[in-house]
Amino acid sequence: MTIVDEHDEGGPMSVREHHLVVATAKHVFLHREYGVVFIREAASREDLAAYDLTPLLLYGLSVPGTSLRWVMLTPVDNPASIVSVLGKAWTQADGLRGRPDVLKVSRHLAASAVDLPDALAATDVRLVVAEGSDKAFSASVRRCQEDAMWASLPRRRATPSTTLDQLNRCATDRHNHSFQSPQSRVNATMESWRNRPPRAADLPPGDEIDWRPGAWLHAWEKGLAPAGRRYFHKDTFDGAVWLLTTPPIADDDELDETIFEDDETDNLPDVARALVRCWPTSCSAIAARKRAAGQPSLSAVSANCGHSTLMAGRRSSLSSRLNLAASMGV
Q1: Tens digits of per-residue pLDDT, 159-173?
Q2: Which of 70, 108, 130, 152 has the maximum number of C-beta atoms within 10 A of its C-beta?
């Protein structure tokens, strides 16, 4: 069977479409002692080997035009077959609504999984190869990588993910929670997608590996600067282990000027503290930069605004992660 070119497609809402991402994970690794370790600032596998970190394979599926994504990780020396990954995703991830009409993949994956078109054709799914200029597919790749980094952010009273099995279960739970929550009703595309009935996966078990791993999996390493010294840190909020680019903060004293707390934010300050501890810029450096710029203190800003506000050197990026945590129900 010939792979279908993406230009044969109709309008963006005329078919169900999924983007399949397969790559070496940028932000999640395994450690013999700590288990799952998260890294915000990407580094090469060679640099991270000095910290006894083992890379992982990331598999992700996303629905273009929505915030729905599902991720799964496996050891690099024990890859999963593409058919088995699709079967799990289309069965367990509520937001994907089962099998699509079209599955879009990179040209590298298409070339390495030569039997995939026939396997998908048996279930009436067409394989489409993304062009290099496809910005929507590139965004799916980037966001699946980022979602893996935040997959373990626990809800209240949840235990941290220390093994891959736990992390994968948490990632699926997060996906399903996001799909079922009111926050996922963000636009007409999402509403249209939510109203579509689920479909059965109708795929074989996929016990045998049906694709060939290659150097294209870690192409994102190109252009990375050499990694400097890094520090392991077990976060007191969610129990996750991070490899930081700056020494971890011993207590919450330096966060008092950065995070303002009120009764309406529930546990948002705790979430913010967990995120700030993983931030590449230290809180003291942020506070010094604010003072040098003549910016008001956070408490003064919060009093004027009438609600809690996060003031940090990279305010918009931190706020987006807090919004992500809030949408996940933490």
Answers
A1: 666 789 999 999 999
A2: 70
Residue type, 320: S
Give the confidence band of 45 by pLDDT, cuts at 50, 70, 90: very high
Under 8 Å between Cβ of 186 and 63: no
3-state secondary structure the chain: CCCEEHHHCCCCCCCCEEEEEEEECCCEEEECCCEEEECCCCCCHHHHHCCCEECEEEEEEECCCCCCEEEEEEECCCCCCHHHHHHHHHHHCHHHCCCCCEEEECHHHHHHCCCHHHHHHCCCCEEEECCCCCHHHHHHHHHHHHHHHCCCCCCCCCCCCCCHHHHHHHHHHHHHHHHHCHHHCCCHHHHHHHCCCCCCCCCCCCCCCCCCCCHHHHHHHCCCCCCCCCEEEECCCCCCEEEECCCCCCCCHHHCCCCCCCHHHCCHHHHHHHHHHCCCCCHHHHHHHHHHCCCCCHHHHHHHHCCCCCCCCCHHHHHHHHHHHHHCCC
Radius of gyration, alpha carbons of the chain: 21
- CA–CA separation, 252 vs 259, rounded Å? 10
How far apart are the C-alpha atoms of 225 and 227, rounded to whole Å? 6
Q: CA dist 247 to 46, 166, 205, 279, 311, Å?
A: 22, 28, 46, 11, 21
* Burial class of residue 44 in the structure, from the number of CB atoms within 10 Å of its CB (0-12 exposed, 13-18 middle, 19+ buried): middle
Mean pLDDT of 122-131: 95
Q: Which of 158, 127, 190, 166 is nearest to 271 (CA)?
A: 158
Adjacent-strand bridge partners of 61: 20, 70
What confidence score (pLDDT) does residue 187 get? 73
Give the pLDDT score at 252.
54
Greatest mean pLDDT range, 80-89, 199-208, 314-323: 80-89
